Description:
Elements lengths: L2 H8 L9 H12 L4 H5 L5 E4 L14 E12 L2 E2 L5 E2 L1 E6 L5 E6 L5 H7 L5 E10 L5 E4 L3 E3 L10 E4 L8 H15 L19 H10 L12 H28 L10 H9 L6 H15 L5 E6 L5 H14 L3 E5 L3 H18 L3 E4 L5 H13 L4 E4 L13 E6 L3 H14 L15 E6 L5 H7 L4 E5 L10 E6 L3 H13 L3 E6 L6 H16 L7 E4 L5 H12 L7 E5 L11 E6 L7 H8 L10 E6 L5 H12 L3 H12 L1 H5 L18 H17 L6 H12 L9
Bound molecules: adenosine-5'-diphosphate and magnesium ion.
Amino acid sequence: MNKELADFLNTDLQFVKGVGPVLAARLNDLLGGKRVLDFLLHKPIYVKPRGISESVLDAKSGEVLTIPVQVVSHKKGGVFRNGKRAPTQILCRDKTGAELTVQFFGQSFLDYWLEKLPVGSWRIVSGRMDFSSRGGAVISHPDFIEKPEDKHKIPEFQAIYPIGEGLTQRIMANARDSIFAKLDNCPTFLGLSRESATGGGNEFFNSLRAIHYPTSNDDLLPTNENMARVAYAELFAQQVAIALTRQKRKRGIIGRSMRGDGTLREKLYKMLPFELTEAQNKAIEDIENDMASDEPMLRLVQGDVGSGKTIVALTAALNATECKMQTAFMAPTDTLAQQHYTKIKPLCDELNIVCDILTGRDKGAAQKEKLTSIRSGRTKIIIGTHALFQDAVEYKNLGLVIIDEQHRFGVAQRAALSAKGNNPPLPDGSGAAGPDFLALSATPIPRTLSMTIYGDMDISIIAQKPVGRIPIKTSRLPVERIAALAERLRLQILAGAKVFWVCPLVTESENMDFAAAETRYEYLKDRMPDGSVGLVHGQMDKKQRDKAMTEFAGDKSKIKLLVATSVIEVGIDIPTATIMIIENAEKFGLSALHQLRGRVGRGSDQSFCILLHGDNLTEDGGKRLDVLCETEDGFVIAEQDLMMRGAGELLGARQSGWVPYYFVDYREHRDLFKLASRNALELTESDPALSTDTGKSARDLMYIFGREIKLDG
Length: 713
Ligand code: ADP
Ligand code: MG
């Protein structure tokens, strides 16, 4: 970008003509930044047409009316002795003689208004017109009052911006006009066409200009050509940033080629009581190829709950073991780590591989022994929590890092890191070390989103469930039928069923969630067989919670119905649980519901999921729940969720690393994601230094959209 333009985009808004320090501060609050650039990225939301009308009589109540009128008389308002307030009213007539009253409330500026509308003069007034109770046309506080010769000061189409306190549309329009007056005189702009990411002219800025000067609401639709072009530019900037980050990461790490002889894996396959699905085999193949390459692996295996990711991860670990390398397998919680360990350890024993677990609970001599064994290289597969990456843990030769349910601690950081272009988020923090990296996620997200979030990783998807799984029967039920439901559950429990009962997330406050769960617990306790109801919630300490969960999981557990707040761990595997009740289901996102439902249906018996909802369920709310009743495909559900609620909500407000787009619309710009990604890859492969014209344009766009990354080092 030429310096003049860059300097201008960086200019503090207070120096823009017509703004000044006070308004600049208010704009800063609104825009989250106070540069000219921040203003340019703030788009109008709709258009008010202000074309001049011929007569008051043609106007519609509640709409903007712009009309030349002659002032007939003044009637001063104010506060009268009886306390009543009356507005100042100025009676006018249009050229057909039809009456229009312009009125002002409040006492300040009265004389000012009267002077702006002197009796006998012609003025053009523009504002929202309503018919008063007596039937006369009234405009209160018009947006514009201009002399006929200043007609041009009233825009035919007014762009309406989202604004905050202390700002008006007039202020926004003035700032915009000053900014574009200057921009139009900047010597060169980057050009960027959608199809090729090259091209000439001032396409990007011309489109940006058109968005700030819309002449109809259609101009602001995502499908509009200019909107699409700017959205494309935004996506392209992001995809280039991601592609470069990824290139850089791969350059920054010395990978190693791991190509085991397959002996351990062959043995494992023989031990499994089932055949791997095609999708599992494909994921394993992807991983083996990555590991064999001397570039470091950065792969995400995405697959629904129960799709069998653990076995896939284990084969990767065995490949490393065959190469005499260690594997660290990290889960987000102690419980999940324990669960993996319980599953993997017996298999390792049979394969004669030392497998151990390390969590924050390990203390003293036992811990020391584990650490020594890891340091010596004797322990080959170490399962644990983030305790695996404490300073005290030294590996002899760590070849592979597996992170399970990584979205629970990784998405936000990943996105932020990618955007910033920092060093790779290897869990040991070194950034330059060499282990291959395999992430597992049970959160299926639509392709468009995963490109945004995991764009720097290769992805394998396991969309297929192991054969023989019985689909979960899902239905919705109004909460007023709870008593009948409880009775049915009682009978099921007597027959040996295990039930999860998830209580709603009432508020952000854990206290309130807890209260709701406790109330429900008491209610159910009274109705179920003695001692069969348990409770877990976020306020229990971890030990108690784990104990309750483990007990519930056990074959001989007395507890048959576990009431839980929605904090219950994702990934917990209790194959004997067959019933899932989710209360206030309408308050959860579809993906969250799908995750919760995935707690059941893991065994060989028919499972059920009942979505309890309030009686004021909206039509949309009902439709959302229906999606869940109709399908179990996590990708379909995620796609629906995205369509219905938008990306921010899908990922949850708490995913703080999430950077929303300025111009991109997930629904309408889906094709642009692919295009931008493809073009970005092409560019970064042919021009990694971004020194060609297209490369330079890409740099400019990355700068404009705040996706800059350092290119060297
Ligand atoms: P997740 O993807 O949720 O981590 P798991 O790896 O825990 O799923 O697998 C869920 C269950 O399915 C486990 O009990 C596992 O042994 C079993 N499983 C995995 N692969 C298959 C398969 N191909 N056929 C049948 N069962 C399988
Ligand atoms: Mg799992």
